[in-house]
TrEMBL record:
Protein name: Fe-S cluster biogenesis protein NfuA
InterPro entries hit by this protein: FSCA_dom_sf (IPR034904)
Positions of region (Disordered): 1-25
Basic and acidic residues bias: start-end ranges: 1-17
Length: 197
């Protein structure tokens, strides 16, 4: 008889102390799960396909019910700090979004992510809007110029990563570059010996 072994506790995290970045990329895991579900739908054996899809639905429902009960206990105990830490953890937050249990909406999570980015990269990131039309979320941002092209690309990449980590349900991030401010007028000293007009 085959058995399914659970990963040891902490296996989903990198070496190091609490607060280290999680090794599990929630967005990639979700995309991989969707791809596997699509592959299951293409199985030739309908009995195997139905059992596999039932297994997926059962597990997702079980985890969702467990998360909902955990959040209920947190709210009943008025444990605001626990809830804050849940929502600040990338993996837990992604699971709460997946099961439609996250206490914050998409726009609130995107704003919080941008606040975190501003703390590291400075001002110059503006949220233009979050569109949910057509079932695909699109976040539109404006980013101020940051010198050379490679620096701008690095800043844009960091901002996109932060937004997609906070809001994995978002399909894409559209970034426009803010117009560069014209250089200040330079006023120099008059050359020595030159008379004023």
């Amino acid at each position: 008889m085959r058995s399914v072994r659970a990963e040891p506790r902490g296996a989903a995290r990198r070496e190091g102390g609490p607060g280290d970045a999680p090794a599990l990329d929630v967005r990639r895991a979700g995309e991989r799960a969707e791809a596997l579900i699509d592959e299951l739908a293409a199985l030739a054996d309908p009995a195997a396909r139905d059992k596999a899809e039932e297994l997926v639905r059962l597990l997702v429902g079980l985890y969702g019910a467990g998360l909902e009960r955990m959040l209920g206990v947190v709210v009943e105990c008025d444990a605001a700090e626990v809830l804050r830490r849940f929502t600040a953890d990338e993996v837990v937050s992604g699971l709460l979004v997946l099961h439609d249990l996250h206490p914050l909406g998409t726009q609130e999570r995107v704003r919080a992510a941008l606040d975190g980015v501003r703390g590291r990269l400075g001002d110059g990131v503006e949220l233009l809007g979050v569109d949910r039309g057509g079932g695909q979320g699109v976040v539109r941002l404006r980013i101020a110029g940051h010198g050379c092209a490679s620096t701008r690309a690095a800043v844009t990449g960091a901002v996109e990563h932060a937004v997609l980590a906070a809001a994995p349900e978002v399909a894409r991030v559209e970034v426009e570059q803010a117009a560069e401010a014209p250089p200040l007028l330079q006023i120099g000293r008059r050359p020595p010996g030159e008379a004023a007009p």
